[in-house]
Design brief:
CATH class: Alpha Beta
Strand order of the largest sheet: 2-1-3-5-4
Shape: globular
Order of helices and strands: EHHEHEHEEH
Number of helices: 5
CATH superfamily: Uracil-DNA glycosylase-like domain
Distance between the termini: 21 Å
Number of domains: 1
Mean pLDDT: 91
Helix content: 25-40%
CATH architecture: 3-Layer(aba) Sandwich
């Protein structure tokens, strides 16, 4: 699945890995029950609710999307610790190359496994990759019932408040 990425983004969102639906369509967070796109809009990152087929439009707002692991699966539970660790190496190289101001890892469990931070919680992290700061967001999957749509949008909004005006350099 191709990344939606450009140099100097304000926020590069990083999913765990594509689900089978996303893998089949080539669109990030494409499953109809996924709450990523509604949360992006409700938090103020975008002026309207975008659909997965419009993902390339995010770059105009200083936003991008990638994944920790590229392999599509029915569930992230199918990923191995080795895949997470290899994914981190690839992700870190990508972040150093494109230098987003923020990397927003969408899923605390993915962050814990890939970054080797077993006690991490949602929110701003102390570590960086180069000059890129890291924020961990809840997983927007419809299966993540611990986070209501409003609470999920609220967490996205916390990041947005930090990221406003954060884009580096000229528009891509």
């Amino acid at each position: 699945m191709p990344d939606v990425i450009a140099p100097n983004l304000a926020v590069l969102f990083c999913g765990i890995n594509p689900g089978l639906w996303s893998g089949a369509t080539g669109r990030h967070f494409a499953r109809p029950g996924n709450r990523f796109w509604p949360a992006l809009y409700a938090s103020g990152f975008t002026p309207r609710r975008y659909a997965p087929g419009e993902q390339e439009s995010l770059v105009t707002f200083g936003l991008g999307i990638t994944n920790v692991v590229a392999r599509a699966t029915a569930s992230a539970d199918e990923l191995t610790r080795d895949e997470y660790q290899a994914g981190y190496v690839t992700l870190a190289a990508k972040v150093r190359r494109y230098t987003p101001v923020w990397l927003a890892v969408v899923g605390v469990v993915a962050y814990r496994f890939a970054f080797g931070r077993p006690k991490a919680v949602v929110g701003k992290q102390d570590e960086t990759i180069g000059t890129t700061r890291i924020w961990v967001l809840p997983n927007p999957s419809g299966l993540n019932a611990h986070w209501t749509p409003a609470a999920l949008a609220g967490e996205f909004a916390r990041l947005r408040r930090e990221a406003v005006g954060a884009r580096r350099g000229p528009r891509a």
